Amino acid sequence: MEKNKIYRAEIIGYSGDGSSIARIHDMVVFVPGGAVGDQCDIRIVKVAKNYAFGRIENIIVSSKNRIEPECPHASKCGGCCYWHLTYLEELRAKKRKVQDAMQRIGGVKLEPEDVCGSDRIYHYRNKAQYPVGRNDAGVITGFYRARSHDIIPMEACLIQTEAADMLARCVRQWMTDNHIAPYNETTHNGLIRHIYVRTGFATGQVLLCIVTKSPKLPAIDALVSAARTAVPGLVGIVLNINKKTGNAILGDSYVTIWGSDTLEDVLCGNHFRLSPASFYQVNRAQAERLYETALAYAELDNTQTALDLYCGAGTITLALAREAKSVIGAEIVPQAVKNAKENAKLNNITNVKFICADSGQAASMLAHEGTHPDVIVVDPPRKGLDAATIDAVGQMQPKRLVYVSCDPATLARDVKLLGEKGYKIKKYKVFDLFPRTAHVETVCLMSRTEE
């Protein structure tokens, strides 16, 4: 295999990050933008010991799964990777991604029950986070180029809401009119870092959060007036102050400059008040299907108890509470726990208790106290479960464990580790909450093996 040399090959699969895969001289080559069945001329751009990276120079025979991308930024923006595929092919790729990880990492031979596609693949995201920068034309917003912090400027995004795009344009114009500088990651000068918009699909409410380096914001009245005019459904404008120099989008401090610091939405029949810091699935319709499956897997009745780790604003917790005797929710973000308690009151649900703690600490504490829930539900971030949580699950010995995962690799790893604690996977189902991106969700049921 030689760098810069062109080879003719067929695309035979997809990698976990959404790239396509070819095999040249018995070596795996990762190629962005390919579709299974493409016959291409591929230029090798990097050669490692056991694999290589290439780019498509010419498509000789186009795959039946290939379509013309609808997004004009698809080849540059790092947010989406599947605009060139039919949606059916994207679903096949995501199902295979989960199944491959479960087999290769988790040693699971079981196939998923199904892959649940999204009815909506445009403007489905209820959360948008736009980095703010500057180019020769002035203030820009958009999304990062793949594997970089170069902002690809864009007026509109096909997976964000039109209200979010409108507020991004509104804030850009406000910054230009009032000579407010975007934050510069290199010099650490400037003020505005990100524009963050949440939308309640069931209520139409919109919350604008502006991430700044300082709590001192000029021309506030002009911002409020412009934003309210642009989006009539706006219910609040919040500042998030992030003085750190790292990649984290949100800081720890919030200041409400107009209206409410939360918005309301409805999920699985429950009403929720959500702050900018609250975890909430970005695709509401698909989240309802995901949680309905999680509830079915839990098999709760009004005599049983449940523990919901990584509970966020209580979306799964409150759904569980309607079918269980009692539920405990644990979450490390204080503002999310505050929202969760308010949401329980808002829905007149009294059989829940919330703990503000790291999942591992909360699970260990409950195990030490002798708590033995019938069902534990976990919905961790991409890094999966930590060792303390897995150990505590083993100590509490629930009959069933329902694992909601946003990363197939860490799910498969944890399934294997939980197997060592006496749990066996019974079934799992794949859900596409993120059409046109490489991300995918999985719901997995594990139960205790017979003693």
From TrEMBL:
One Pfam family from the record: TRAM
Residues in TRAM domain copies: 1-58
Chain residues that bind S-adenosyl-L-methionine: 281, 310, 331, 379
Transmembrane spans: none
InterPro entries for the chain: MeTrfase_TrmA_AS, NA-bd_OB-fold, SAM-dependent_MTases_sf, TRAM_dom, U5_MeTrfase_fam
A GO molecular-function annotation: rRNA (uridine-C5-)-methyltransferase activity
Residues annotated as the enzyme's active site: 406, 406 (nucleophile)
Single biological process term from Gene Ontology: rRNA base methylation
Keywords in alphabetical order: Methyltransferase, S-adenosyl-L-methionine, Transferase
Highest rank taxon of the organism: Bacteria
Entry-linked Gene3D superfamilies: 2.40.50.1070, Nucleic acid-binding proteins (2.40.50.140), Vaccinia Virus protein VP39 (3.40.50.150)
UniProt xrefs under PANTHER family: RNA M5U METHYLTRANSFERASE, TRNA (URACIL(54)-C(5))-METHYLTRANSFERASE
Family recorded in the similarity comment: Belongs to the class I-like SAM-binding methyltransferase superfamily. RNA M5U methyltransferase family.
Name this polypeptide is given: 23S rRNA (Uracil(1939)-C(5))-methyltransferase RlmD
